[in-house]
Specification:
Largest sheet: none
Radius of gyration: 19 Å
CATH topology of the largest domain: Leucine-rich Repeat Variant
Structural class: mainly alpha
Helix content: 55-70%
Number of helices: 16
Strand content: under 5%
Number of domains: 2
Distance between the termini: 56 Å
CATH class of the largest domain: Mainly Alpha
Number of strands: 0
Shape: globular
Length: 237
């Protein structure tokens, strides 16, 4: 089982028309956040099928896919890692996968790659390891936008388990972030907190709505009533 086999499978599913749409959607033009990323036109459900088929791909071959310029190849690599982490039978195996993920974190370099891997690998690993979560705070302070997004989105796994503390602390760290993709991610995680604990989200919003970037606030209050949304938007500076 080789990376070349995965590439062959993906190419058999490729659709040039979809590739052109994805190139625009993921902002791959000059000076855009996905500059230089190459799509071949394979959608996420298909990529999941490929990852499932090749879930026993050796890590050396997974690394080859991660260092591809083709977006779908990197996505399949990360989906394989996430599957392997969830099905690992030992702590040693889980540690190996997380170390591999962190060693190659620079290749997790678009928002869908972050969103489909960070909660299920890094978040899942840290959910019962409070003492090691300082790693997320280091990532939140990174100059790399994808590492900052990993920091906040990884906490989605904590949120699913009713643990909101780190989400709210990292959200505070990122309030002044200048990147729209961070605004969206933070707002999304705040909204997820609100689904489970409306009071916790409300407390954060009451404290910070005046300084939250507009996009972040809009994402955070999306599920609230129109009256509440209007009040928070009016309170915005």
């Amino acid at each position: 089982m080789k990376a070349a086999d995965v590439r062959k499978e993906l190419k058999s599913m490729a659709e040039p028309e979809k590739a052109a749409i994805l190139q625009r959607f993921f902002k791959t033009g000059p000076s855009e956040y996905g500059e230089g990323d190459i799509f071949i036109g394979v959608m996420v459900p298909q990529s999941r099928q490929v990852a499932k088929k090749f879930n026993q791909l050796p890590l050396g071959e997974v690394r080859t896919l991660l260092y591809s310029r083709v977006h779908e190849e990197r996505l399949v690599a990360l989906l394989i890692l996430a599957w392997r982490y969830s099905s690992a039978s030992s702590s040693r195996e889980k540690e190996e996968i997380v170390k591999f993920y962190l060693d190659h974190i620079k290749r997790v370099n678009n928002w869908d790659l972050v969103d489909l891997s960070a909660p299920n690998i890094l978040g899942a690993h840290l959910v019962d390891r409070d003492g090691r979560r300082r790693l997320l705070y280091r990532l939140a302070g990174s100059e790399n936008v994808w590492e900052r997004r990993i920091a906040i989105v990884a906490t989605h796994h904590f949120i699913r388990n009713g643990d909101f503390s780190d989400t709210l602390k990292i959200a505070e760290m990122l309030l002044q972030d200048r990147h729209d993709l961070i605004h969206k991610a933070v707002g999304w995680m705040l909204r997820e907190v609100g689904k489970r604990d409306a009071a916790a989200e409300k407390e954060f919003l009451e404290k910070h709505c005046n300084v939250m970037p507009r996009t972040m606030l809009r994402y955070a209050i999306e599920r609230l009533s129109e009256r509440k949304r209007r009040r928070y938007m009016i309170s915005e500076r």
